[in-house]
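Quick one, tokens below. Sequence please?
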């Protein structure tokens, strides 16, 4: 009797790579991307961004090395590549040594690209500086920040008493000299104001009473901006009751990322207290000594910009004032008291300023420590990584395999304990950051891709340890993630609040659901994953490349639109598509589709034949697109970042390989075996 063939589509679940191809892909990371990065005075192996000589090529991102660690944590890969896995794990441990998991390492540099004081541009390894010193304007932003905020160092005033008269002058309105000076280790920006007051009985003339100089020192090795303000009284003039100010202006422009409160520390930078802002108007936030002023955007911690100030003479601070507009901080003014300057005398105050791209709420003490001693960073960028979930899952994957005896030789007990302590520390910080300034978690403070991978890591750790606290956090994470799925009429995709759906974030949410279902076949999770699969489309997507250029490609994609055209009660915005132009998105989608099939095979996800066929079609389309983006590179295999790119990078290679190697099958397979005691 002839056996009847099943009509069920067969999605390939085994590895799609032969061992020689797999090793050549890994060899590309080791030979072309691995470098010895200076960290804490040591040479620590890490993956650089890319091998081509781009301005950011030597940057080493925490998330990139984390994805590679998860890849190499697979037992069959560790047998050959364990040395590389251990090296990159050491980098992760070093980037998260304290309570903050910092985002990257960059070589020290200070490059003056434009030296015109009226239109300057200076780049360091962490920040960029632009502006017009003739107007007293210094604009600073973070290089490679996930959400750009341009900080304006301007808005200064000076107050003093001359005889019986009290005067308040605008610093920027009286600038008479300005310039840019280069130094071997950095640059100095300055502007100098001539202070004039009315003179004579009829006040028809002016008298010069002092000179006020603002200097901004930029260093190749220090991420802080050092501000020095010097007031010198003119010969024959005595000034009293002086208030020198350091200011930040025009802070309210980021309506979707407002600053609504300011954290203040005492003279030692401790005894922290939070000062809320009024809806509108000027308010005094503090009177007397202040050693720390810290502000963080209302945004997901991984993308929230933070501004941290440290007056180097805290006892000289007279008051801190703020002006609010619509509940958002607009102008911050720190006033420093100088009792008296006799003729010809000078006084200098100094302040350290630090901007962080990615800022952990509640970690103010850590930023205060950086302001006091930037050497604590040891070469790290002070910003928090946005992809903390990826790093958590990299560490959790190793812990799971190690505790189940999958590694030979086994990881040393001390190493395993250090990895779990690291994981627990940063997991706690991650969920604390989602709480905002209150006890309840706030979906607006989450980043979907990071949240999804944090859930995957929790599933991994629960399988590794059976610890109920990880189960409780899974429930908390799901309560945040599930509401992020749009209604079917709005596309049905997962998307961060107020954002368009992105294929990588949607795929990450699918992966999290698929990984959780075998141990919790909840109908709510099943429905969410089936709707997520249905939200995936296959077709032609038009990609904007900038400068009017566009590229059309056939790809899986998700569709959505901003509600209300971005807010304000307006009609919904136009439909927009996000597909697989970037190769890492296709790799992540392939992994999510494979995991969904695994959940179905485990009996945890009921799927109709048409749904299985949809998985198959999307998987094959992603694989075909990626095959055309792999090239031979000096004996290695390199995955290009996009169909138009001429290079691969550390953000692409491991994520695509994880999509091709089906790592979740091994984890689901050992999830029911008893772990080895820690």
């Amino acid at each position: 009797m002839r056996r009847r063939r099943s009509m069920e589509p067969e999605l390939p679940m085994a590895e799609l790579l032969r061992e020689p191809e797999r090793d050549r892909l890994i060899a590309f990371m080791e030979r072309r991307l691995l470098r010895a990065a200076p960290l804490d005075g040591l040479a620590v192996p890490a993956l650089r961004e890319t091998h081509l000589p781009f301005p950011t090529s030597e940057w080493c991102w925490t998330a990139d090395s984390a994805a590679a660690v998860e890849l190499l944590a697979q037992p069959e890969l560790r047998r050959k590549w364990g040395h590389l896995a251990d090296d990159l794990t050491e980098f992760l441990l070093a980037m998260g040594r304290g309570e903050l998991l910092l985002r990257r390492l960059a070589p020290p540099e200070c490059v003056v690209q434009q030296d015109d004081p009226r239109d300057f541009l200076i780049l360091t390894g962490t920040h960029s500086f632009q502006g017009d010193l003739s107007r007293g304007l210094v604009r600073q932003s973070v290089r490679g920040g996930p959400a750009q905020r341009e900080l304006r160092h301007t808005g200064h005033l000076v107050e003093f008493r001359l005889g019986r008269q009290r005067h308040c002058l605008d610093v920027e309105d009286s600038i008479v000299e300005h310039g840019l000076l280069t130094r071997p280790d950095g640059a100095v920006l300055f502007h100098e104001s001539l202070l004039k007051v009315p003179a004579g009985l009829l006040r028809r003339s002016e008298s010069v009473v002092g000179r006020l100089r603002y200097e901004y020192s930029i260093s190749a090795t220090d991420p802080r901006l050092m501000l020095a303000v010097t007031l010198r009284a003119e010969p024959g003039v005595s000034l009293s009751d002086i208030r020198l100010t350091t200011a930040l202006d025009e802070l309210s422009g980021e309506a979707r990322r407002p600053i609504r409160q300011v954290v203040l520390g005492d003279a030692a930078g401790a005894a922290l207290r939070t000062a809320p802002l009024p809806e509108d108007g000027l308010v005094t936030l503090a009177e007397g000594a202040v050693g720390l002023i810290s502000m963080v955007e209302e945004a997901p911690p991984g993308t929230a910009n933070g501004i941290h100030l440290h007056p180097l003479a805290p006892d000289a601070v007279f008051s801190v004032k703020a002006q609010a507009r619509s509940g958002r901080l607009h102008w911050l003014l720190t006033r420093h008291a100088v009792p008296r300057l006799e003729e010809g005398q000078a006084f200098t105050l100094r302040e350290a300023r630090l901007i962080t791209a990615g800022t952990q709420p509640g970690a103010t003490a850590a930023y205060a420590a950086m302001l006091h001693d930037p050497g604590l960073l040891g070469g790290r960028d002070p910003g928090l990584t946005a992809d903390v979930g990826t790093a958590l899952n990299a560490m959790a994957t190793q812990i799971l395999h190690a505790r189940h005896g999958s590694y030979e030789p086994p990881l040393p007990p001390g190493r395993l304990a250090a990895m779990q302590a690291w994981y627990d520390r940063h997991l706690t910080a991650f969920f604390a950051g989602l709480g905002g300034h209150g006890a309840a978690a706030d979906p607006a403070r989450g980043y979907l891709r990071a949240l999804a991978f944090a859930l995957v890591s929790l599933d991994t750790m629960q399988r590794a340890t059976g610890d109920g606290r990880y189960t409780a956090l899974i429930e908390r994470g799901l309560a945040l993630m599930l509401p992020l799925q749009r209604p079917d009429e709005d596309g049905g995709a997962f998307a961060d609040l107020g954002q368009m759906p992105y294929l990588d974030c949607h795929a990450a949410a699918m992966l999290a659901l698929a990984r959780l279902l075998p141990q919790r076949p909840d109908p709510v999770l099943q429905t969410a994953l089936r709707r997520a699969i249905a939200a995936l489309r296959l077709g032609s997507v038009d990609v904007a490349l900038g400068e009017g250029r566009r590229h059309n490609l056939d790809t899986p994609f998700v569709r959505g639109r901003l509600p209300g055209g971005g807010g304000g009660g307006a009609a919904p915005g136009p439909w927009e598509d996000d597909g697989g132009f970037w190769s890492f998105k296709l790799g992540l989608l392939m992994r999510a589709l494979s995991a969904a099939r695994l959940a179905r095979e485990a009996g945890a996800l009921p799927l109709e034949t048409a749904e299985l066929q949809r998985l198959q079609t999307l998987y094959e389309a992603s694989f075909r697109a990626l095959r055309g983006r792999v090239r031979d590179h000096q004996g290695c295999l390199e995955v290009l970042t996009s169909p138009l790119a001429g290079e691969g990078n550390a953000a692409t290679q491991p994520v695509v390989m994880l999509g091709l190697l089906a790592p979740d099958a091994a984890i689901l397979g050992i999830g029911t075996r008893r772990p080895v005691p820690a």
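Confidence is low (pLDDT under 50) at residues 1-7, 672-678. The first helix runs from residue 19 to 33.
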